[in-house]
Amino acid sequence: MLPISRRKFLAGVTAAGGAALAGVTGAQALLPRPLYPPMSLAYFDKKISPTTADIRIGYAAITWGGNDRQAIEDISAVGYKGIQLRSNCIEEFGSPEKVRDLLAEHSLQFVALSSGDLDVEAVDPRAAVAHHVSNCRFLRAAGRHVSADHR
Q1: Which residue, 110, 128, 20, is CA-closest to 72?
Q2: Main-chain dihedrals φ then ψ at residue 70, nearest 5 degrees
Q3: Distance of alpha carbon 69 from its chain centroid, rounded?
Q4: In sequence order, what DSSP letters do the residues of the chain get, joined into one string?
C-alpha cells in the first residue's frame, strides 16, 4: 500500500466535498458548451449489409495531347472500361452521337468530360456558365449517365 500524506488526503476530501456541493450543474459550468444541440443518433443504428464494391478504373485522354481517336484506341486496347475526354473532342467529333458510337466500338464508357476553367470574373459570366452547361449536355448525349444526385 502506498503511503498518502495528510495534505494529499485533505486536498482529495475537500475536492470531493466541493464537487458534491456544486452538483452536476456546477461541474457542467466548467465544461465548454457543445457545438451542436443534442440530437437523436438512432438513424445510425441501422446495420449496413456488406456488398461488393462497384469500382471501375478508367483513364484520361489528356496525355495524348488532343489526339482523342488514338487515345480511345490505346485506352481500350489495354483493357480500361472508361475514358475521360477534354472538351476539344466536341469540336473534333462534332456530335455526341459520333463520340458515343466510337466509344461503343471500343467498349469504352464516357465517364467524364474536362470542360475547362470557369472564370467567375468573366465579362459575361452567364455565357461562361452556359458554355459549361452545353458541355455537360454533350457529355450526357454522348453516353454519360448523370444521376439525379449529380445534376
Answers
A1: 110
A2: -65, -40
A3: 30
A4: -----HHHHHHHHHHHHHHHHHHHHHHHHHSPPPSS-----GGGGSPPPP-------EEEGGGGTT-HHHHHHHHHHTT--EEEEETHHHHHH-SHHHHHHHHHHTT-EEEEEE-----TT-SSHHHHHHHHHHHHHHHHHTT----GGG-
Domain boundaries, the chain: 58-150
pTM over 0.85: no
Tens-digit pLDDT string for the chain (151 aa): 568 888 888 888 888 877 777 666 666 667 777 787 888 878 777 777 788 877 778 899 999 988 999 999 999 999 999 999 998 898 899 899 999 999 999 999 988 888 888 777 778 888 888 988 999 899 989 985 443 333 3
